[in-house]
Amino acid sequence: MSRAFKSQLYEQFARVTKAASSPQRLELLDLLAQGERTVEALAEATEQSIANASHHLQVLKQARLIASRKAGIYVHYRLTGPEVFSLLRSVRVLAEQHLTEVDEVVRRYLGNRDDLEPVSREELACRAQAGDVTVLDVRPAEEYRAGHIPGALSIPVEELSQRLTELPRDKLIVAYCRGPYCVYAYQAVELLRTQGRTAQRLVDGLPEWRASGFPVETSSGQVATP
Question: Catalytic amino acids?
Fold first, then answer.
């Protein structure tokens, strides 16, 4: 009885790890941590065919890591709960601590991350409340609408060079995007500094901000605290 119980129990646990044992599916979960997305939007963001993205999404859905709803001809996917992002974050931290290859890849593509002087979530929360910093969300507009740091200004990174006049010159600008390995904030800070602005990046992104219990605002003006 004990062996049968454990075998069946660990078989169910393994459903989760099997579903997450694909780089494409991990990236899909990372994107869905920003907010609900359609199959088409996820396929475009991950540079997959719609058929491939749909297959990976079905695997994640079968493991109850994501859920879906249909609106007209479009199917929208979302994480089933904050614990799914916790799983993704744990995998990332485990890989960072035990796989030297992670640091090698990061240094190859992002250089020395400390050069851009990351700001902690706690420091940003304090400075934003004091009003002495401009918080800049450089993710795509639909991700901003799904949820953002309260008071953040939305300027997608590809529009930043044309919209610099919307940013004050006399304040520190803190840019954030999807997470610690999202290149948008790095690109934004580098651009802003070349234009004579004082800029830093948030140490990670909106999902980590939300997971830490800080409030998140939607485009409707609603503010929620986890």
Answer: 177
